[in-house]
């Protein structure tokens, strides 16, 4: 488990930690986008539909539970979590900056 320091860290240390994590986020979100595009090219959709929440949760848990078999599936699992986040925000009435699926998208 991550340990918490007894003394507050310096602002410079916090800035350095945040910069390291920002680099990780850039690489990770690129992997998430690539995984999403791959699945979209297969015709997968409905990730943003409220009725899909239970299935997204179950499939995401199944991917996470397969450790160590899930090695290399981190971006796939993160996409399931992002989909669930999107659905929860919509239930709370938070407008998210994305357009609805275009007409003619797979059913």
Quick structural gist:
Helix content is 58%, strand content 0%.
List the helices and strands and how they pair.
Blueprint: H1 11-41, H2 53-65, H3 74-91
Helix pairs in contact: 1-3, 2-3
Give a verbal description of the structure:
The chain has 107 residues and is mostly helical. The chain has one domain (11-91). It has helices at residues 11-41, 53-65, 74-91. Helix 1 crosses helix 3 (74-91). The longest helix is centred in the N-terminal third of the chain and has 31 residues, at 11-41. The termini are far apart.
Q: Using the CA coordinates, give the radius of gyration.
A: 17 Å
Strand content: under 5%
Provide the helix percentage.
55-70%
User: What is the N-to-C order of secondary-structure elements (H for helix, E for strand)?
Assistant: HHH
Q: How many E strands? A: 0
- Tell me the count of domains: 1
Instruction: Return residue spans where pLDDT drops below 50 for at least 5 consecutive residues.
Output: none
Taken from the alpha-carbon principal axes, the silhouette is globular
Number of helices: 3
Cα(first) to Cα(last) distance is 43 Å
From the helix content, strand content and strand pairing, which structural class follows?
mainly alpha
Report mean pLDDT, rounded to a whole number.
81
Q: What's the story with the biggest beta sheet? A: none
């Amino acid at each position: 488990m991550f340990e918490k320091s007894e003394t507050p860290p310096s602002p410079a240390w916090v800035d350095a930690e945040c910069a390291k994590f920002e680099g990780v986020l850039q690489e990770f979100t690129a992997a998430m986008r690539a995984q999403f595009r791959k699945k979209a090219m297969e015709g997968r959709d409905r990730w943003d539909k409220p009725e899909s929440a239970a299935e997204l949760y179950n499939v995401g848990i199944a991917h996470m539970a397969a450790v160590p078999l899930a090695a290399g599936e981190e971006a796939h699992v993160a996409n399931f979590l992002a989909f669930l986040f999107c659905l929860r925000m919509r239930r709370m009435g938070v407008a998210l900056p994305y357009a609805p699926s275009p007409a003619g998208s797979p059913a």
